[in-house]
């Protein structure tokens, strides 16, 4: 897993991949800015409490609160559009590291968008439900956050990579065989998505990381 992560980090500095990586980072930055703006607007326009002074205090802290909430919800929202641009990243990395592979059949834009939106909405709902725990359980909150989002991100990124090469049944079987590895990879991606600045490159790193793991697992699988 360390080898796969090292290779993934190296992809960010490859001249051949620079354009697609910069586009992906730019889109991620735009997504985070949009999420921050939406959360800030909701905090300012919505009355959360019966006591006016609590709402006023929340409004005064709106910028900080919006940043914190955006930071917490970012992994979930990132899943909503992960399938829209990361396929190009994966294809570029395959051409560099796995040129012997035949052309991938792809998942199809409609299926990719549908899967990403479905899992993203689930992640968003779970994270919203867990927001009180995130704020009220210091120490445990990060572990809970990384665990929940790690599971969902591991599944999403694995399917993004695996379904380009395998049928749904074969991909599901391999994911079950490597359940622990997929979960740990998802946790790594979730951690990256919570680190300021680094979280802008995290979707690209996650895709590259999972691709290298998948190719190793697929080669070693007896099926």
Notable characteristics:
223 residues, mainly alpha
What is the gist of this entry?
The chain is mostly helical and about 220 residues long. The chain contains ten helices and no strands. About 80% of the residues lie in helices and about 0% in strands.
Identify the overall geometry: globular
How far the N terminus sits from the C terminus, by CA atoms, comes to 21 Å
What is the SS-derived class? mainly alpha
- Got a strand count? 0
Order of helical and strand elements: HHHHHHHHHH
Report the C-alpha radius of gyration, rounded: 19 Å
Percent strand equals under 5%
Largest sheet: none
Helix content, binned percent: over 70%
Total domain count = 1
- How many H/I helical runs? 10
**Low-confidence spans:** none
What features would you describe in this structure?
With 223 residues, this protein is mainly α. It has one domain. Helices cover 81% and strands 0% of the residues. It contains ten helices and no strands. The radius of gyration is 19 Å and the shape is globular. The mean pLDDT is 79.
């Amino acid at each position: 897993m360390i080898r796969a992560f090292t290779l993934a980090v190296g992809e960010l500095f490859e001249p051949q991949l620079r354009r697609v990586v910069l586009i992906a980072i730019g889109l991620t930055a735009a997504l985070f800015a949009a999420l921050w703006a939406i959360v800030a607007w909701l905090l300012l326009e919505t009355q959360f409490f019966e006591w006016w002074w609590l709402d006023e205090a929340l409004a005064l802290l709106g910028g900080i609160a919006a940043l914190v909430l955006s930071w917490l919800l970012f992994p979930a929202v990132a899943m909503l559009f992960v399938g829209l641009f990361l396929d190009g990243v994966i294809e570029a990395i395959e051409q560099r590291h796995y040129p012997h592979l035949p052309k991938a059949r792809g998942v199809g834009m409609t299926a990719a968008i549908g899967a990403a939106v479905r899992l993203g909405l689930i992640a968003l709902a779970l994270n919203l439900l867990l927001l009180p725990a995130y704020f009220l359980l210091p120490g445990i909150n990060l572990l809970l956050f990384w665990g929940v989002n790690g599971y969902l991100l591991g599944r999403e990124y694995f399917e993004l990579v695996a379904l380009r090469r395998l049928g749904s049944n074969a991909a599901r079987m391999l994911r079950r065989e490597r359940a622990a590895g997929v979960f740990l990879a998802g946790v790594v991606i979730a951690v990256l998505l919570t680190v300021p600045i680094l979280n802008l490159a995290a979707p690209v790193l996650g895709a590259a990381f999972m691709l290298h793991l998948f190719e190793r697992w697929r080669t070693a699988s007896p099926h």
